[in-house]
Each structure stands twice: as C-alpha cells, then as structure tokens.
Amino acid sequence: MNVSAIEARVDSLLAMTQQQSSMLLQNTLYQGTLGVMHALYGPNSSQERDLRTYIEKLSEKLHPSYPHIISQSIAAIAGALASVKGELQSGFVGSLRAGIAGELLSDLLKLARTVLDQGGDEAKNVAAVLAAAAFEDMVRQGTASRGETGRRAHRVEVCRSAPGRRGGNRSILSRLSE
To answer: Where in the sequence is the domain holding 49, given as residue range(s)?
Structure first.
C-alpha cells in the first residue's frame, strides 16, 4: 500500500468538497471515499458501513437530489475524509498494518518450526518455503513502506531473478534446508 498516494487522493477529494454542491460532485466524492476506505480498511469496514448508513438515512428523508440532502451528504463525506487523513498523518494506519504484518510473520515462522519438528526431508522443504515466504514478504513490505525503488529494491529483484535459481527464494531455501 502506498500511503503517500492515498494521502494525495484524500487531499484531492477534500479539496473537491469546497466546490459548488451537485449530484455529480456528491457521487464522485462518495465513490472516491469508498475507494480510499477499501484501500485502507478493506471491504465492509466499520468506517464504510457508517458512511453508507448515514447517506442512506439522509436519502430516506427526502429525494437524494434535494439540495439540502446533497450538501449534508458532502459534509458527511468531508468528515469521513478528514478522519481518514488524520489517521494517515498520525501513522495509525501504518502502525496497524505493521502490527498485523508482524503477527503474520510470527505465525508463519511458528508454523515453519512446527513442520520442521516433524522431521524428514519433505517437512524440511515445507518449513524452508514458509520461512522464506515470511522473510520475502517482510523485505518487500519494508521496501514498499519506505517507498524504496532504488538500490535495495533493485537488489531484491536481482536476487530473485538470478540465473540458475528456480523461483524467488531459491538461495534462501537452499540455505534453510541444509
């Protein structure tokens, strides 16, 4: 996830809330905000449900094209966007994702250890694949979170595509299974 791109999208949507209210603007903001929420929180998040419910309740009062309903909808969308922006700026979303990634890495390594304890070549290969996948994901997440597309990310790609290696984790797999 590219947090800076999402922040830019949120800023763009927030700037649009200052335009003259219209159905087109409301729908553009609504769909854009839902897209941002999907990217950050996943589908059917509590934030998305709250926004959808509020907009639906507004539409039940009067026809959705009524100017007062449109301006209230835009205000609600602006509030949701401001909340998203605050979470992004505080690092809340990034720290939450890092925590989840850490838990996943820990689980993969525990699973690799459990499989390795079973003994045998097959178990050793499975454990090596699990550990390598966890390591590769950690490296990829680290470079992506820092926006590194330079030398370090290039080195990772060179290692993954080096001649004589099958798949991206060949050298790691061979070291772990020895």
So the answer is: 3-90
The token pair that represents 116 in the structure block: 């390795």
Tell me which of 69, 90, 111 is where a domain ends: 90
HSE at residue 1, side-chain half, CA atoms within 13 A, is 18
Helices and strands (H, E) in the chain, number of each type: 8, 0
d(CA 124, CA 117): 9
Residue whose C-alpha is closest to residue 9's, from 26, 24, 31, 27? 31
Among 61, 90, 119, where does a domain finish? 90
* Residue found under tokens 């959808």: 52
> 35-72 pLDDT, tens per residue?
999 888 888 888 999 999 999 998 887 776 778 888 99
**pTM for this predicted structure:** 0.55
- For residue 7, give the nearest of 96, 89, 76, 90 by alpha carbon: 89
